[in-house]
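Consider the following assembly input.
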Amino acid sequence: MDEFEVRPGEVVGSAPDRADAALIFIGRIRTPFQSLRDCPRQGQMDGPICRIEIDEPWWQAMQGLEAHPELQVLYWMNRARRDLLVQVPRTGAGRAGTFALRSPARPNPIAVSIVAVTAIEPGAILVRGLDCLDGTPLLDIKPCRRGFTRQNEGQ
Amino acid sequence: MDEFEVRPGEVVGSAPDRADAALIFIGRIRTPFQSLRDCPRQGQMDGPICRIEIDEPWWQAMQGLEAHPELQVLYWMNRARRDLLVQVPRTGAGRAGTFALRSPARPNPIAVSIVAVTAIEPGAILVRGLDCLDGTPLLDIKPCRRGFTRQNEGQ
């Protein structure tokens, strides 16, 4: 929490201190990015291979993953602050409300990324396209919805 | 929980009874779907208009939403069971692990949908493309990532 500084022009709210539902971490993501400074602004399909490690209780839930060359990965940005309402991007331009930005700082810091699968191992998936810190907690893996596609592979 | 029956061939695990992180509900989604039977299998961009209601503490975070004709909406499928590892779809065909399906039943029942915005009101967004129950808890709203698009609007 509070890893991200508040920049001039940003608006901090008072997020309610309550738990409406509980998340379970089901594994973790191993990436080459050891600090926020290392993380690219957005995952690239030609970026480094990252390793999604799934904890043993959910290994059976991996059945059939081999049919999906792309997956949607949900993870928990556990170092993001949750109380920013209006944010100023790093560049200084484009001040906007949190819901109009994909910044990690949001009331529920859940990231949604599409990844390209390069290999499936027992209890792990090797993928490209992630931009998160090494050790980031894993929440979910889903096949991509039919009807959606990545428009430009390199973007 | 446990709203969904277990079908022959499905595998039930023992999800750990712990909370690794806490979610805050930031509003709710009003839809015409009052029971699971009413819900379409997948949201349609020509489906009924639904109303995303955002609670007052986060109204400032809506600034700039008008720049985005499509949004990614995250919500909590609070009636889904969380302990299914292998599932058999309603049709009976296509038995697969939870991570190879977009079924609501999953360790962290977070839905991710792309919606088309039809209007923005104070504290609310009117959209098409949702398939969830009336009253579903809202978790997050994000702009769509550049480079992704809906391939077939009607699918």
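The domain at 23-145 of chain A is CATH 2.40.30.70 (Elongation Factor Tu (Ef-tu); domain 3). Ask yourself how this observation constrains the way the partners meet.
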